[in-house]
Sequence to fold (226 residues):
Amino acid sequence: MDLAKYAAKFDPTEAFRQLADPDPAVRLVGAKWVEKQSRGAVNNFTEPWLKDVATMSRLLPLLADPDELVVEELTGAVNMIVSRYRKDARAMPPAVKLVSSTRKNTRLRAALILTNFPDPALADVLLPLFTDPDKQVRAIVMKETANEVLSWPADLQERTRQAALARLADRAAEVRAAAATLLITVGTAADVPTLKAALKTMEGHNYRQDFRESIGLLEAALKRKR
Fold:
């Protein structure tokens, strides 16, 4: 194998040039390449530049690109970098703006950026997404919020609990299952009967199994607190 030729496949120079091009179609090519590399297998050729603070400095201003497809791809790339390589808090302000995007994938990717940071102020951004028009956004954001909610103060944990309880009546089974998952973290003994009642409405073997597991995990957590 020609190592130099192989390494060149992961060199971001051309993609970075494309991201500065006045043609949005060219910028989109560069954005898709960066996003693909950010979620690909970690290797010795991509890791250095994906970890580099200069890469984030280059990408973050582009989250305001006038082309929404470019923004969608780069929001995905920033999410992967924040999740896998560098937790850069500079990603938070643009992500907060992008959760109100009209594009589902952009909203979801922006929300996932925010779930990497245990900032209680983000509750006001994440909790409204529990009622997002798209069921995938509702479900995934609830699941990912569970990673951060324990670092929030008690009043915000209670708001999260109430928001999760409300989604047990969601029309989408995957959202109800996600709500049950979140309640493992923020639920109380009073929620167990509510969860068991909601289980009766669940359809689909996998969703029902996930729901049962959530109830069991909540009950086990409550026993440990006694």
Q: What stands out?
A: The first helix runs from residue 3 to 8. The radius of gyration is 20 Å. The chain has a mean pLDDT of 95.
